[in-house]
Amino acid sequence: MKSVGICTLGCKVNTYESEYVINELKKAGFEIKDFNEICDVYIINTCTVTNNSDSKSRKMIRQAINRNPNACVVAMGCFIATNKDYNEQGLDIILANKDKSKIVNLILDYLRNKEQIIDLYDKRLDEFEDMYINEFPGRTRAFVKIQDGCDNFCSYCIIPFARGKCRSKDEDKVIKEITDLVNNGYKEVVLTGIHTGSYGVDLDTSFSDLLNKLVEIKGLERLRISSIECTELNDEVLNLLKKSKVIVDHLHIPIQAGSNEILKAMNRKYDLDYFKNKIKEIRSIRPEISISTDVIVGFPGETEELFQTTIATCREIEFSKLHVFPFSERKGTRAAALDNKIDNKEKKDRARRLIEVSEELEIKYMEKFIGREVEVLVEEHKEGSSIGHTGNFLHVKFEGESPINEFTNVKITSVDYPYCIGEMVK
């Protein structure tokens, strides 16, 4: 039996695709081992969203080659898609983002012929590549990839070049996959994609139409959207938020910058007034909803004054968490040609300061729930305690080992960041 170690870098879409690959390899008789062990085959599912992502992708590939020079080493994903000339000595299969579903046959072909396989393509002509998963071993939260690609072309982002145009999974296939996951015991499903809210632009449907059907799936307790743009939270989606409790009390809505000057330079599709009004509209429906966001700091032209405006904006909106990223210049994007670049030391300092603001905002949101009863989906046990998340993504820890993948009512008694501390309600 051949053994395989898989390293997954980057986003939840990569997580989903790697899980699919693992399932297919198991079916074909491969043994799945830890990536850091000696294996017959190594797969690195790469990321290219930042320069650090590129560096880590190259590092993981070299580690695999050096760990077992006789192994079949596979590099696939976004780093490969945007670096088509990359060809490390000892790399046996080079695969972009198409044909990940054919990985088993590609590996078997290599093991049989011992000839390097390079599978690159024009990604903007692709249709959605179907994958199906009915279990996520070791996880209480299941992911379903419903969409791929992006047509937004934000000035800083390389991903449209790596993933291609927007394309969507067939609606009936999405419904079947989630139904099967629910029937296999999963109570929470996360919808994921590169630009999730654009689902349906290439089909005769829409994201809101899909959501309306998914919330009716019998046994589905929680439906979470991995990320959605504020411009995609239209009246139909907001109406569903109003009437269905299956969609959790948490939305991740990227803002990316807190000033109109930088938003315009980023080629974002909204201004601050639009964004703030959309948040107010959401909170008029769900007053205590958790809203997290992404923020890029150190974008070209971002003065200290504009950075302070971003801090003020984040405090005013009262996000529940900020995912902070120093600007990473990507060759081939419009932002790479902009003047007034910020040096790396300043970018790191701004990231540090904004992460401090994030912790402040997180604690403020968590403290709202002290003294209140919440429903926790238990995910793990640690040192005699149970740990899990609420629908609004509070990370809760309480004494006692409540059953994993079951809901437990917990009264929040205090905050010990990053946890809400609670007591099980008998």
Structure in words:
By secondary structure, the protein is an alpha/beta fold. The protein folds into 4 domains: 3-121, Rossmann fold; 124-248, Transcription Regulator spoIIAA, CATH 3.30.750.210; 251-368, Transcription Regulator spoIIAA, CATH 3.30.750.200; 373-424, Beta Barrel (OB fold (Dihydrolipoamide Acetyltransferase, E2P)), CATH 2.40.50.140. It contains 12 helices and 19 strands. The chain has a 6-stranded parallel beta sheet with strand order 2-1-3-4-5-6, sandwiched between helices. It has a 5-stranded mixed barrel with strand order 15-16-17-19-18. Helix 11 (304-317) packs parallel to helix 12 (344-367). The mean pLDDT is 96.
From the spread of the alpha carbons, the general shape counts as globular
Q: How does CATH name the architecture of the largest domain? A: 2-Layer Sandwich
**Helix proportion range:** 25-40%
Largest sheet: 6 strands, parallel
Low-confidence stretches: none
Q: How far is the N terminus from the C terminus?
A: 48 Å
Question: What is the CATH top level name of the largest domain?
Answer: Alpha Beta
Radius of gyration: 22 Å
Instruction: Label the structural class.
Output: alpha/beta
